[in-house]
Design brief:
The structure is a homodimer. Chain A is an alpha+beta fold. Helices cover 34% and strands 27% of the residues of chain A. The first copy, chain A, has helices at 50-59, 85-92, 106-116, 120-128, 151-161, 169-183; strands at 6-12, 21-30, 34-44, 67-72, 76-77, 81-82, 96-100, 133-135, 142-147. Chain A has a seven-stranded mixed sheet, with helices on both faces. A two-stranded antiparallel sheet of chain A has the order 5-6. In chain A, helix 1 (50-59) runs parallel beside helix 2 and helix 3 runs antiparallel to helix 4 (120-128). At the A-B interface, strand 3 and helix 6 of A face strand 3 and helix 6 of B.
Chain lengths: 190, 190
Amino acid sequence: MKQQIRILGIDDSPFTFDEKYSAVIGVVMRGGEYLECVLRRQVSIDGTEATAICEQMIQNSRHRRQLKAVMLDGACLGGFNVVDIDMLSKSTNLPVITITRDKPDWKKIKYALQKNFKDWNERLSLLQKGKLHMVPTRHNPIYIKCTGLSLTEAKEIINISTIRGVIPEPIRVAHLIASGITRGESYGKA
Amino acid sequence: MKQQIRILGIDDSPFTFDEKYSAVIGVVMRGGEYLECVLRRQVSIDGTEATAICEQMIQNSRHRRQLKAVMLDGACLGGFNVVDIDMLSKSTNLPVITITRDKPDWKKIKYALQKNFKDWNERLSLLQKGKLHMVPTRHNPIYIKCTGLSLTEAKEIINISTIRGVIPEPIRVAHLIASGITRGESYGKA
């Protein structure tokens, strides 16, 4: 696999619960090293349009044809606005990988969904769709889902695009921008 | 000089003339390779507080003590809100370098200032303060001013932090973020 493949990393901005929207930042990077483009959209907090927003962001970008993979910091943007990663992969014809540092706590997630959403069952099903893989790293393991490519290919893309720590640069950089533009100074880890 | 020195790059967002403010984006990078932090402030378009805004951005950042240099895409933020780079360097105790692709056209600048500002003479004096150096590169030359360090040191910092083309990464990345968050997709060159 080419070291310089174009990857789109997506993350959302932090928000408070009196806000209606969260900014969604996309970054196009060549491998893990060179930033080529910054994209911005927004999603409604706890809404249901995150999949469509990601799809539009990709389809309308002039980098569309160069992209080889999409990475998400978990499948939720703007609270519990869940991205259907299978649908996103099919509609864009691109592999999609979600990456998180922590194993999802399904008991807690189910409780939060049931408490806040009439359609909690649909959101939970979407979140639980697809196999979760624990991937060991030199540091702590990460948890990934992948669709539109094999687990071996997903691991290779993660490897190519990770410089320090365990989070690939496209997600780490999207996180820094999303938190920095919202809070004035970026903080925390993707 | 260390290859991994922390540099703050600053650029402003594009704006239309019915807007009052322009976003100012700062990025802290180690050399030209690793993004560590994203900062955001705003300046009033054609205002007079750009120097103070840059100073606050630097002094309030938790990366303050690691910073070794500041780079600006020219001395203007938000139209003709001119940064006094000598004052910024003195108040932050950091070297400041401005970099542009084009040699300033003083006739045009003077005309634009006279047409729009009562204090045009002060703005012009600020802009003309300090020696402008043409620095050859492998591509086109760039035009720089530097304060708080020697020209040789400034060239070395530019060298360390430039990966492709002629614009150092801290300015290039700040530009991509500032234009991307404002327009939805970054475009153009710093």
